[in-house]
Amino acid sequence: MTVNRAVAMTEAGESKAALELLDGLDAAALADYTPYLVARSEVLHRRGDAAAARPLLERALASSQHAAERQFLRGVLTSRYPDSAPETGGD
């Protein structure tokens, strides 16, 4: 629920509060939880911190178990960071 709330807050223009909410979670426990990684990456991206957002998006892509999700994340990654060349993974 907390990750969903942070996403909603970000969509409402409250990225600072969303980041604070995500900062309150156990990042180590969520290290491979794709929704958390994507949400945190998006918040950081919208706050202008591409250096922190990109590796989270890359980790989300690597941790995803769903082909459609990986395809979507690849698209986001390559549109935001044109020098990215993520593996196709056969999807």
Q: Largest sheet, if any? A: none
| Count of DSSP H/I helices | 5
What is the succession of H and E elements?
A: HHHHH
CATH level-two architecture: Alpha Horseshoe
Estimate the helix proportion, in percent.
55-70%
Q: How would the global form be characterised?
A: globular
- Give the end-to-end Cα distance, rounded to a whole number of Å: 29 Å
Helix/strand-derived category reads mainly alpha
Record keyword descriptors for this entry:
mainly alpha, 0% strand, 91 residues, Serine Threonine Protein Phosphatase 5, Tetratricopeptide repeat
Plain-language structure description:
The protein has 91 residues and is mostly helical. It has a single domain, classed as Serine Threonine Protein Phosphatase 5, Tetratricopeptide repeat, CATH 1.25.40. The chain is 66% helix and 0% strand. It has five helices and no strands. The longest helix has 14 residues, at 50-63. It is globular. The model has no long low-confidence stretch (mean pLDDT 92).
Layout of SSEs?
Layout lengths: L1 H10 L3 H9 L10 H13 L3 H14 L3 H14 L11
Helix pairs in contact: 1-2, 1-3, 2-3, 3-4, 4-5
Question: Can you summarize this structure?
Answer:
With 91 residues, this protein is mainly alpha-helical. It has helices spanning 2-11, 15-23, 34-46, 50-63, 67-80.
